[in-house]
């Protein structure tokens, strides 16, 4: 969709010239979120501003859908892309609805269509249109204003969205929430997004790919997983941090690491003496009791010793359970917090789908880090 071909940007000339971007080439696929990441001054914002011709390219070309942007009218080009920036840039004397409608009005949309679209966008960013459309920006919190910035960027339903640290000014808790909401919206809309960030956590979470820059050069362009597990050089390894194995846990899902067929499953109606025999045969001290497909709790050999009835009556309920789609990091955190050696995993209906142990987690990380060509032991 967007192709950067040997793009350089030099500000000024002579001895004071600054090379902001140095011979950068990469391609953003349609529907993909690419995060431009790197330390301050590495060229992230410049790359974004060249894309919508807010700045001009010194050398090289940028094409969108195969068309050179320099051959397009800059105003049209800008209108065809959403642009969301950290400073938000809402007009203080316009209402929220008027702020969102800026581009659709320029494009000559009818009043009814604009009004409908405004309400739709407000709902999309979790703000009730009845409450917010006629308010002024100063009457909104920072996080709410930022949501309006996102809504405005999406107003004319552009295929491409350029976002420059869009959630940078929001406190960490609200930022997590707005990132989650944005990812949900993106799952539906499938926009092509270039997203500037200096936060590795945000890049891992938001990006289908990460473009990591340093001093105007593109150092590595890869999926978050590859950036974390196969850093191309010391700069990348240092930038992602020595805790990158832990960051990988944030990328992986519980489902990817769990054991879907643990040996110690006991059906709820099994009588205690039979359950003891079963656990002894499997050489397990604990069993996971499942009844009608739903997890019930743990039983230990000790618990069962003097019992005669079905295990479902003596099982100790799980203090917490993980959902298969949760990040593996959450599962590890639950196990540490609740002092569990095994975590039960359920699907969206609450049905049992597997268990996770510390060993499963370790194995999953090792699998990601091991060379693709090595033989792997896939039995868990
Ligand atoms: N208008 C300008 N005139 C001169 N130099 C500029 C201009 N804009 C950017 N630069 C320089 O170009 C380099 C890249 O800047 P850019 O804003 O792209 O960095 P960035 O990676 O977005 O940084 P930050 O995270 O701090 O926003 C920097 O050295 C910056 O000082």
Automatic annotation (TrEMBL):
Residues 315-373 form the CBS domain. The keyword Transport applies. Residues 2-240 form the ABC transporter domain. InterPro entries: AAA+_ATPase, ABC_transporter-like_ATP-bd, ABC_transporter-like_CS, CBS_dom, CBS_dom_sf, P-loop_NTPase. One of its GO terms (molecular function) is ATP binding. Keywords: ATP-binding, CBS domain, Nucleotide-binding, Transport. The keyword Ligase does not apply. GO terms for biological process: quaternary ammonium group transport. PROSITE patterns: ABC_TRANSPORTER_1, ABC_TRANSPORTER_2, CBS. Belongs to the ABC transporter superfamily. This is Glycine betaine/L-proline ABC transporter, ATPase subunit. It comes from Desulfohalobium retbaense (strain ATCC 49708 / DSM 5692 / JCM 16813 / HR100). The lineage of its organism: Bacteria, Pseudomonadati, Thermodesulfobacteriota, Desulfovibrionia, Desulfovibrionales.
């Amino acid at each position: 969709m967007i192709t950067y071909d040997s793009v350089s940007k030099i500000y000024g000339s002579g001895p004071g010239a600054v090379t902001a971007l140095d011979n950068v080439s990469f391609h953003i696929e349609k529907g993909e979120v690419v995060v431009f990441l790197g330390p301050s001054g590495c060229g992230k914002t410049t790359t974004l501003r060249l894309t919508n011709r807010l700045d001009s390219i010194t050398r090289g070309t940028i094409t969108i859908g195969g068309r050179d942007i320099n051959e397009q009218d800059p105003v049209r080009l800008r209108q065809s892309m959403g642009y969301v920036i950290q400073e938000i840039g809402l007009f203080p004397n316009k209402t929220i609805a008027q702020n969102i409608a800026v581009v659709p009005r320029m494009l000559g949309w009818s009043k009814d269509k604009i009004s409908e679209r405004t309400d739709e966008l407000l709902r999309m960013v979790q703000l009730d249109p009845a409450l917010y459309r006629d308010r002024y920006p100063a009457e909104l919190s920072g996080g709410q204003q930022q949501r309006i910035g996102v809504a405005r960027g999406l107003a004319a339903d552009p295929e491409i969205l350029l976002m420059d640290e869009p959630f940078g000014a929001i406190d960490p808790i609200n930022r997590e929430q707005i990132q989650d909401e944005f990812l949900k919206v993106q799952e539906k809309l499938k926009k092509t997004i270039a997203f500037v960030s200096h936060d590795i956590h945000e890049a891992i979470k938001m990006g289908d790919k990460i473009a990591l820059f340093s001093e105007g050069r593109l150092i590595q362009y890869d999926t978050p997983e590859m950036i974390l597990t196969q850093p191309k050089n010391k700069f990348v390894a240092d930038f992602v941090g020595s805790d990158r194995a832990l960051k990988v846990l944030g990328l992986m899902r519980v489902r990817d690491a769990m054991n879907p067929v643990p040996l110690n499953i006991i059906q709820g109606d099994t009588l205690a003496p039979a359950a003891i025999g079963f656990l002894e045969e499997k050489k397990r001290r604990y069993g996971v009791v499942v009844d009608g497909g739903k997890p019930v709790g743990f039983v230990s050999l000790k618990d069962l010793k003097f019992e005669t009835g079905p295990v479902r009556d003596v099982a100790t309920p799980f203090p917490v359970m993980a959902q298969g789609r949760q990040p593996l990091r959450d599962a590890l955190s639950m196990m540490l917090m609740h002092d569990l050696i095994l975590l039960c995993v359920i699907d969206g209906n609450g049905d049992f789908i597997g268990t996770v142990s510390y060993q499963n987690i370790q194995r999953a990380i090792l699998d990601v880090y091991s060379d693709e060509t090595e033989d792997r032991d896939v039995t868990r």
